[in-house]
């Protein structure tokens, strides 16, 4: 589906509203994951000339009740062959006789009230006991379906290769209803397989293995090169229990191949001859046209020293010590003039020692950042692998337009599907590095250069996280060049609705990890990246659409890897993701899914959107002027109507509670005093929809963030939400303030690349396909990319009336001095975090014992957060000693536009002083922070986070 098709039209025509007018927005939510949709545009599938009719599962034939018996009914798959012996169908009890039909050559048709063209007709008996508990656990969405028993004598292994249908007949013998079948249940029962898949290399041969139990014929077409027309060899594969295999000579290595699979495809009701890559491909030709036969353990594809890289990786004592920096491969160097042109935007840019970007990463590493999280780097659609095919925009022309012009976005979007930019959330092959980031997309170059990138990052002290997108794939059907899984075993890998249509809640082509071989593919892929590319962590896109069982197995699998056996330290590999709960998987609709609440106790991290929304205000999908804790809520109103003063003050108090729970690692059982003066647990602090704020069992299960690649950058959202009459210096301090909350919280901090440089995308809310122009990073610190034109119309037009005057106002644009100050502020915050283990407590119990919030209850100073962290002393009963330098820490966060004084008897008579890193910084404002021991009174400047420490 096109991203544009998910942007709903506003309810009324847009005119330029006043700042206080209720502004109409597209109603899509982050949970619709628009960034994943990059290949499509309305009505046209790129790379083809065929018009594309896209139908969303939420609107396509929601009813699964039987339709009239017609030929059209066979295009639906409303019955489920759930086990060897049971077919489930949503038909009423006692409705007439039911039959199963099979046709080897897909000749089934409905005519004259009968099903014709079948090779096999089998009577099914309705059971009296319904579906078994085992079936209901696997397919909870059909728990109430009627169960029909399949005769034990049937050869089900051969039947699944046919076109299949079931039909119910009236008492007069006429067909009342008919439908096709969904087969994952029986395929899992009969054909689950744990043996070799893909290309297997030994001393004298190369063997191919393909799981395709519904295929009738499978051939491998072997090519000498990525471009020659005719194969040098066509190999017929042989089948054993659903697995097709062939053995070839060792000189196949370096050749290319595709599979030709003859298989019944439910989307066309025909036997199709599908040409596809290997789902277990480890190498590809340019644009994924053919699979490369490459042996990843060969010395020919290893950089020098690769096998010993584990010994060079930076130390990681605990997952609680992790901090994450999210970065797009192309963003990192595409606009860096200190990088040679041939390296710009690619893997090799990370291998340079003296480029501006690498120097910046070294600075972040020295400050404490531990992991670089790379946006998708597998083979994705939306960007041609061969650079000579890319289209470009004249940069001088773009620079000539005013900062609030529509011209820039018009020129960018005119070529956005033909340039070199895309976030990459549209997978084609999960297990192969993306070719467009390599010097040569053909051959093993992409593998070698990807490994060099990982090696280089590790050597400057940064571990590498891959952004994996297992929740959906780019294409489906028998025709699309980028369709792979749905050509090999049609209807199995993708999650389907009650009518048989593909679910699209993740944007397009949802995958079904609840099916055995889908889960296996995910686990095998993770192991490949961990072992053969020495990846240090995985971030799961829309993790809530993956089953919890799969995630737990993934964690266990990675944890089992060892240096001696696999060359990697598996227990140091961290996994986390987006635990949103929506679509067909919501409320465990397809089994227990990996959503935030379900992951309690798993040790798997999930993004904490609660702290993000409380800090910024509203949500990324609410009114853009809705203020939050750091953007002026109550303390500095922007004119947007949020109700009377008491209501707005209450909103600030509630936001503060949400932030404090987040700063305590969003623990479900952390006890604090809420804004009403009540002692409550984190799970007893609620969102507006009465869902709990706290959900984690340990700090490593919470990833705190205020900004990510999705939605506006931190600086942009602050510029949008704050009053127009404040200065750019004040907005910069708000940026610092938001970053400080994330940096000094318990749990794992996550930062979007460039937030430490006041990064702007000219207020683009979804820059997934906005080109280098709107996504630019400038490591010279000369510009933050503010005011480079109105952001692309598709996702932002509704907000243009708000964006335009801000971009046009030169006072909004930071100067180099502001950017340098922001970089120093961020570095200082990270150094403070790593100056004491008290900021990185490892257990929920430690956080409960040591972390306290003051200035709580109804008699509070509005907005002020005061957090203390206590350590023990040698020989003194109670807390153990963790920090050899500091015995007590107080963090005070003041979002107010004026200085604030706060006194608390519990904080009296301590030897507290401003943290030496802040005392030695160039920030003269924070140096004005004071503490008076006799009264326990702190004074903190406006829009400042002050850290006080008690040295031992």
UniProtKB/TrEMBL annotation:
Residues 196-281 form the Glycoside hydrolase family 13 N-terminal domain. Residues 781-950 form the Alpha-1,6-glucosidases pullulanase-type C-terminal domain. One of its GO terms (molecular function) is pullulanase activity. GO terms for biological process: carbohydrate metabolic process. Residues 77-189 form the Pullulanase N2 domain. It comes from the Eukaryota. SUPFAM superfamilies: (Trans)glycosidases, E set domains, Glycosyl hydrolase domain. It holds the Pfam family CBM_48. Belongs to the glycosyl hydrolase 13 family. This is Pullulanase 1, chloroplastic isoform X1. It comes from Nicotiana tabacum.
């Amino acid at each position: 589906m096109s991203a544009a098709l998910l942007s709903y039209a506003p309810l009324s025509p847009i005119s330029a509203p006043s700042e206080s007018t209720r502004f109409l927005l597209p109603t899509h939510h982050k949970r619709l994951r628009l960034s994943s949709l990059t290949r499509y545009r309305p009505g046209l599938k790129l790379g083809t000339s065929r018009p594309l009719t896209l139908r969303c599962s939420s609107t396509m034939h929601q009813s699964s009740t039987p339709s009239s018996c017609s030929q059209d009914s066979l295009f639906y798959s409303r019955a489920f062959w759930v086990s060897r012996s049971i077919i489930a169908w949503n038909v009423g009890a006692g409705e007439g006789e039911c039959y199963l039909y099979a046709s080897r050559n897909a000749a089934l048709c409905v005519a004259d009230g009968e099903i014709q063209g079948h090779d096999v007709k089998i009577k099914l008996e309705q059971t009296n006991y319904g579906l078994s508990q085992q079936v209901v656990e696997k397919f909870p969405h059909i728990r109430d379906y009627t169960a029909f028993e399949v005769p034990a004598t049937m050869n089900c292994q051969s039947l699944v290769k046919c076109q299949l249908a079931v039909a119910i007949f009236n008492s007069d013998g006429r067909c009342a209803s008919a439908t096709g079948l969904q087969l994952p249940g029986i395929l899992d029962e009969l054909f689950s397989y744990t043996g070799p898949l893909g290309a297997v290399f030994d001393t004298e041969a190369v063997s191919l293995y393909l799981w395709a139990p519904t295929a009738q014929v499978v051939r491998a077409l072997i090519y000498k090169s990525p471009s020659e027309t005719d194969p040098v060899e066509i190999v017929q594969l042989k089948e054993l229990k659903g697995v097709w295999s062939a053995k070839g000579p060792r000189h196949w290595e370096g050749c290319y191949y595709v599979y030709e699979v003859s298989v019944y495809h439910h989307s066309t009701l025909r036997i199709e001859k599908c040409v596809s890559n290997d789902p277990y491909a480890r190498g590809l030709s340019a644009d994924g046209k053919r699979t490369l036969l490459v042996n990843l353990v060969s010395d020919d594809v290893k950089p020098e020293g690769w096998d010993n890289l584990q010994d060079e990786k930076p130390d990681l004592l605990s997952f609680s010590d992790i901090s994450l920096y999210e970065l797009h491969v192309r963003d990192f160097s595409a606009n860096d003039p200190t990088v040679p042109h041939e390296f710009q935007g690619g893997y090799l840019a990370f291998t340079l020692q003296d480029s501006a970007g690498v120097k910046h990463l070294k600075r972040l590493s020295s400050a404490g950042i531990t992991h670089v999280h790379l946006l998708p780097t597998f083979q994705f659609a939306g960007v041609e692998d061969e650079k000579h095919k890319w289209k470009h925009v004249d940069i001088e022309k773009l620079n000539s337009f005013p900062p609030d012009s529509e011209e820039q976005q018009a020129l960018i979007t005119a070529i956005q599907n033909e340039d070199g930019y895309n976030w990459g959330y549209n997978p084609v092959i999960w297990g192969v590095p993306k070719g467009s980031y390599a010097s040569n997309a053909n051959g093993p170059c992409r593998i070698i250069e990807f490994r060099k990138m990982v090696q280089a990052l590790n050597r400057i002290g940064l571990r590498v996280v891959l952004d994996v997108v297992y929740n959906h794939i780019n294409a489906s059907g028998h025709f699309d060049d980028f369709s792979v899984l749905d050509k090999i075993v049609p209807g199995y890998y993708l999650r389907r609705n009650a009518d048989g249509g593909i679910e699209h809640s993740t944007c397009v082509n949802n995958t079904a990890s609840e099916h055995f071989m889908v889960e296996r593919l995910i686990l095998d892929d993770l192991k490949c990246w961990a072992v053969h590319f020495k990846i240090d962590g995985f971030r799961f896109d829309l993790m809530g659409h993956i089953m919890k069982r799969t995630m737990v197995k993934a964690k266990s699998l990675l944890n089992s890897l060892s240096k001696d056996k696999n060359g990697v330290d598996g227990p140091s590999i961290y996994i986390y993701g987006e635990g949103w709960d929506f679509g067909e998987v919501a409320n465990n609709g397809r089994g227990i899914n990996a959503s935030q609440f379900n992951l309690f106790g798993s040790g798997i991290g999930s993004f904490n959107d609660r702290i993000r929304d409380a800090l910024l205000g509203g949500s990324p999908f609410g009114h853009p002027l809705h203020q939050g804790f750091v953007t002026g809520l109550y303390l500095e109103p922007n004119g947007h109507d949020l109700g009377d003063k008491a209501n707005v003050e209450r909103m600030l108090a509630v936001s503060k509670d949400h932030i404090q729970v987040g700063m305590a690692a969003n623990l479900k059982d952390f006890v604090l005093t809420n804004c009403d003066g009540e002692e409550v647990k984190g799970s007893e602090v609620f969102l507006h929809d009465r869902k709990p704020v706290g959900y984690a069992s340990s700090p490593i299960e919470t990833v705190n963030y205020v900004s990510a690649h999705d939605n506006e950058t931190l600086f942009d959202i602050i510029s949008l939400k704050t009053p127009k009459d404040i200065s750019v210096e004040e907005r910069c301090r708000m940026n610092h303030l938001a970053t400080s909350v994330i940096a000094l919280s318990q749990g794992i901090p996550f930062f979007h690349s460039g937030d430490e440089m006041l990064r702007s995308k000219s207020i683009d809310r979804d820059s997934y396909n906005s080109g280098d122009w709107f996504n630019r990073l400038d490591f010279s610190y000369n510009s933050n990319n503010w005011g480079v034109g109105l952001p692309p119309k598709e996702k932002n037009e509704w907000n243009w009336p708000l964006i335009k005057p801000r971009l046009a106002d030169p006072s909004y644009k930071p100067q180099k001095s502001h950017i340098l100050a922001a970089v120093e502020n961020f570095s200082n915050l990270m150094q403070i975090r790593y100056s004491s283990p008290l900021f990185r407590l490892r257990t929920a119990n430690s956080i409960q014992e040591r972390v306290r919030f003051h200035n709580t209850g109804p008699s509070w100073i509005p907005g002020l957060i005061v957090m203390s962290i206590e350590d023990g002393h040698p020989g003194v009963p109670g807390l153990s000693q963790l920090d050899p330098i500091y015995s007590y820490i107080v963090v005070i966060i003041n979002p107010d536009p004026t200085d604030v004084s706060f006194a608390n008897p519990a904080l009296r008579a301590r030897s507290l002083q401003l943290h030496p890193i802040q005392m030695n910084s160039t920030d003269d404002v924070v140096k004005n922070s004071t503490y008076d021991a006799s009264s326990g009174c702190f004074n903190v400047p406006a829009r400042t986070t002050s850290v006080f420490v008690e040295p031992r």
